[in-house]
Amino acid sequence: MQRVARFFATHGARAAPLTSGVPVLKQLPRVLMSASDALARHPALAETAVRVALTEMDGLFEPYDAERFRAVCTAALSATPGEVTEVTEVSATPLRSGIAEQTHTARIGPMPVRITLLRPDARDELSDDLDLALAAARFAERHSAKARGMHAAQWIARTKENVDAMIDLRQRAADQSYLRFRLREDNRLAVPEVLWDFSNAAVLTTRAIRTVPLSDSQALALNGLDQADLIATLIEAFFEMALGVGLYHAGLDAAGARVSIDPDTYGQLVLEADNPTMFFAAHERDFIVGVSDALLDGDHKAAARTHLEHGRPESNATHHEVRVESTYRREAERFASHGSRQHARVSHLFDAIGRAPVEHMFSAQHGRIASRAVMLSRSVESIERMVHEVAPDIDVWKIARKVIARLARDQFSLRGFAARLVNEAAHWPHTLPRLPSLIARRADAASHKR
C-alpha cells in the first residue's frame, strides 16, 4: 500500500498528461500518503483510514469566494422544481470547507439558511483522479503478481466508494432528516431542518441556527452557558449516539462541536448537515457494547465468545480460539480494576476493541467492526484532550461506564428482546419459504466437509 501511495505521490502530481484530455493525479496522492501508513499495518481499516485522511486535511481544493459561490449556487438551484429564489447575504468566508464542498450562511428570501455546495470542478477533478488511479491499479495487477498480492485495485475501488459516499449530498440530506426524526424528543441536541425545496444533488440547504463553538469559553460565558456542563452533556450524548443509536456524527467531535444560542434551541448541541455521518449496523453496535462491557468487568471469556460469534477460523480452530481469548484476557486486565484504569484512557478501550478483530479477523464483519472502533477511539481521544484542558474535574470514565453498562443491560432486557424479535420478524416472510432448501444446502455442505 505504501508503494502504491508513494508512486502516486511522486509521479501523479508532477507528471504531464500522456495525451490531450487525460487527467493528471492532482489531489489523490495526498490522501493516499496520509492513509498509507495505517493501511500498510491493517488493510481492513481502509474506510476509516481514508475518512481520517480526508477530514484531517485543511481542504483539497481552493474554496470559491462568496460571489462565485452565490452564482454557482443560484445556477444549481435553478434545476430544482418550483420558483427560483435568489440567494443573498452569503457569508464572506466558508463556515466549513470539505474535500469537494463548502458551506456558507446566506438568505433565501427572508429566511436565514445554511447552504452546502458541491463544487463541480473539484468533484470532477477528484473523480478523474480516482478513475485514473483505479485504471492504473488494474493495469498493474494484470502484469504483476506483486501488484495482485497488494490488492491495489480493490483498495482504490473501496477508496472511491468511500469518497463518493462522503460527497453525496442527497444521502447526507436524507441522513439529516432521519436524524432529526430520531432525535426529535432529545432536548440535548438540535438537528436543523433540511429544506428539500432548495436541495438537490449539488446543493444541500438547511435552516440556519446561530451557534458558538464549544471550545470558546468566552463566547459561551457571554451567552450565559456553562462550558463544563456542556462538555459533560457532549460526552454522554456522544456515547449514547454511537453505541445506542448506532450513528457517528462529527458534530459531536470535540474539535467541531457547536452550541445553539437561538431562543428555540438555546444551549443544545447542534448537529449540522455538512458534517459527515457514519451509521453502525446493529451487530457492530452490539459487538462494541458487549465487548467493552465485558472488558470493564474483567470477563475476557465473554469478550472472546462475542468475537467468535461474528466469525470463526476455518482451520486450526482451537489454536486461534485460544489466541482470541488470550488477547482479550490481556486487555481485560488493563481495564477491569479501578486502579489500572486510572492509567488508561477511554480511547484506549476502543483501541483495544478494534485491535483484536484486526489481529484475529475471521470474517469481513471483523474488519468493519475494527474500522468503527478505530473511528470512535479517534473521536474519544479528542474529547478527552478537551476535558483535560478545559474541565479536568469531569470523569470521562464514569460517564462512559454508565452509558455502556446501561446499553449492555438493555441487550438482555425484555425491551431489548422485544426489539430483536420485531427486527427478526420482518425477515420471516422471506426466510420461512426458503427454510427447507437452506436446511438441505447446509446438510450437503456438512457431508462434503466430512
Strand elements, count: 11
Q: What composes the largest sheet?
A: 5 strands, antiparallel
Mean pLDDT rating: 80
State which percent range the strand residues make up: 5-15%
Put simply, the count of helices is 20
Estimated structural class: alpha+beta
User: What is the alpha-carbon Rg in Å?
Assistant: 24 Å
Count of structural domains: 3
Identify the overall geometry.
globular
Please estimate the helix content.
55-70%
- Stretches with pLDDT under 50, minimum 5 residues: 7-25
Instruction: Report the end-to-end length measured between terminal Cα atoms.
Output: 39 Å
Mind explaining what this structure looks like?
- With 450 residues, this protein is an alpha+beta fold.
- Strand 2 and strand 3 (101-108) form a beta hairpin.
- The strands form four sheets. Strands 1, 2, 3, 4 and 6 form a five-stranded antiparallel sheet that branches. Strands 5-10 form a two-stranded parallel sheet.
- The protein has helices at residues 2-12, 28-41, 46-55, 66-77, 120-143, 145-150, 152-166, 169-182, 217-222, 227-245, 282-296, 300-309, 317-335, 338-341, 346-359, 364-390, 396-411, 414-425, 428-431, 435-449; strands at residues 87-88, 96-97, 101-108, 111-118, 189-190, 203-207, 211-213, 247-249, 258-260, 269-270, 277-279.
- The chain has three domains: 2-60 and 121-166, no CATH class; 66-118 and 168-278, no CATH class; 280-416, no CATH class.
- The two termini are 39 Å apart.
- The chain is globular.
- Helix 1 (2-12) packs antiparallel against helix 2 (28-41) and helix 11 (282-296) crosses helix 16.
